[in-house]
Amino acid sequence: MWLGSCHGANPANVEYMLKTNFDNFPKGKTFAALLGDLLGGGIFNVDGDAWHHQRKMASLELGSVAVRSYAYKIIAQEVEACLMPVLADAADRGAVVNRQDVFQRFVFDTICKISFGLDSACLEREMPMMKRLLNIGSERELKKAIKLVDELAAAMIRKHRKLGFTNSHDLLSRFMASAGDVHTVDDKYLRDIVVSFLLAGSDTVSSALTALFMLLSKNPEVAAAMRAEAGDDSTPVTYEHLKGMHYTHAVLYENMRMFPPVQFDSKFCATADVLPDGTYMSSGARVMYHPYAMGRMPRIWAADHGEFRPDRWLTGAGGSFVPECLYKYPVFQAGLRVCLGKELAITEMKAVSVAVVRVFDVEVVGESGSGACAPKFVSGLNLLFYP
């Protein structure tokens, strides 16, 4: 059922796989082997005790007020000192920028600072390491790309071992401190954590931001409403201010309904089972659930499912944001594997989108040079856009 009928597009089936009978639908050895060279034994590539251990540690760290405060401070600094100057320079010169490239660089910078205390400086004009890590240009071979990732991870681990981590706030330091003595923590274990952080915190957020500004370009009234909610650009945006922006929150969720950063996921059925819709699953069968398809189904989102309409997420006279059931909207997964970095990702996307719409009117230019062009859907680990 990998490319056949998508039984994971039924919310009841999604809930059954991700919650009700979770243990019978693991990632599976096939998935682990497929991405083993890149993800190793990281949290996204394992099941059982290894997953439970990393999940518990990640939950303790990412759920803490100290980490969220530390992360927001970095995000706000990067927006003000790096992202906005790049966009302002392009606006002053009347230049066209590749928004996906800019957001990939920005998000890579922030995740490196938050996770490793490293300033990767990717928003500088010349960024050869970033070019190679993003597989842009001539270096496209998988082995070379993984070698670069390994080199970066090893350098980060050496730095943390040398400097110690007891007084550091970045996530890798906190993981090392909770795992044991600095000299005894296994390098392979730390390498897989580093790669998991990079994957979870960079491509997904940059993909969502890329889609967002395409949609805002087509729907200027939505950008205007976000600008009105954010207020005068002379007023600094605080973390509490961001949390109160219900309309902007709805815009982000509506954006990811239409263009989820992770378009699909799959599980393996450990023992023969029957899904809630009556579908029989044989032992070892692979079943996929597809957020991209689910976000476009009229039986889930009504007849206007193709419209970009943020107010579908708002209720009441004050327009309060109300989330949908996660099994109907599994953009951040759901159940026991629900994304632990969800709040951090939303905060980063909010901070970027608010800062940009307060100052700029963004126009996405298509291949013809007039108007926004539809993205070309590219199936993969994360949604990418190509001109």
Task: Kindly list the characteristics that best describe this protein.
Cytochrome p450; two-stranded antiparallel ribbon; 387 residues; two-stranded antiparallel sheet; disordered N terminus; 6 strands; mainly alpha
Q: What do you see in this structure?
A:
With 387 residues, the chain is mainly alpha-helical. It has helices spanning 11-20, 29-34, 36-39, 48-62, 65-93, 99-116, 128-133, 142-163, 171-179, 187-218, 220-230, 239-243, 246-258, 291-294, 298-301, 342-359; strands spanning 265-268, 273-274, 280-281, 286-289, 314-315, 320-321. It has 16 helices and 6 strands. Strands 1-4 form a two-stranded antiparallel sheet. Strands 2-3 form a two-stranded antiparallel sheet. The chain has a two-stranded antiparallel sheet with strand order 5-6. A hairpin with a 4-residue loop joins strand 5 (314-315) and strand 6. The chain is globular, with a radius of gyration of 21 Å. The protein starts with 10 loop residues before the first helix and ends in a 28-residue tail after the last helix.
What can be said about this structure in brief?
Helix content is about 55%, strand content about 5%. It is mostly helical and about 375 residues long.
- Got a strand count? 6
Radius of gyration from the alpha-carbon trace, in angstroms: 21 Å
DSSP strand content: under 5%
* Count of discrete alpha- or pi-helical segments spanning 4 or more residues: 16
CATH fold naming: Cytochrome p450
Helix content: 40-55%
Q: Structural class, judged by helices and strands?
A: mainly alpha
Spans of at least 5 consecutive residues with low confidence: 1-6, 135-139, 367-372
Overall shape: globular
Return the average pLDDT rounded to an integer: 82
The CATH architecture would be: Orthogonal Bundle
